[in-house]
Amino acid sequence: MPVGPLTRDTLEDRVYAQIRDALMEGRFAAGQPITLRALAQALGVSLTPIRHASSRLVAEGALSVGPNRTLSVPAPTAAAFEEISAMRQLLEGLAAERAAERIDEAEIGELERLCDVMDQAYEAQDLLGALRANRAFHAGVHRAGGSAILVAHLDSLWLRAGAVVPIVIEQSLHEHFIPKDPNHPHRRVVAALRARDGKAAKRALVCDIAWAADLIVKHLAEHPAAASGPRPMTRTR
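The structure assignment produced for this chain is given below.
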């Protein structure tokens, strides 16, 4: 047979997945230098799986290699981020429309829970918690769309955009917000999905992406070399 039996994920796969998740959540700042040794220490593993995982992420354009083999997260220009945002609006809008036809009550409940988690993070001024909840919410909508191809394309876009997402989340932490605000785009997405209204779900999600993109593009244009502070990594699960 041309294929063999399935095997469990290797340590390399788990390391790769954890670094990839951290990049999409925005736990690495744009332009932040990253050493292999620091990653190995943070994740509690040897250098070998870190080397393999980082090579895969460099090939995907999520990391770049500088002098002395130091890694960093590429900082997108304002123009590049506008392109990423435009693609996200198209593809995430499609995912939301598809999700309205396929999502079940358990998935809707999880999205609603993530809205509450994000509110709690804002109240606690917890940047990392807000970043994780934001990424988990969008990823939940992507998966509910029922297309592995669509999810893969969106993951690729998030890998290239994650480092600058904290710009808008940090601003939100310092602004007044209304807990359980029904007008927040995330809660509007949930309401539309519960009503099986794909068009409304798409509009709400596109509105969320476009609003954040306007703030981020303005920031990148005014501070092209700026980067937010690093966020912590945790050991492999």
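Interim note for the steering committee: The chain has ten helices and three strands. The chain has two domains: 11-72, 78-222.
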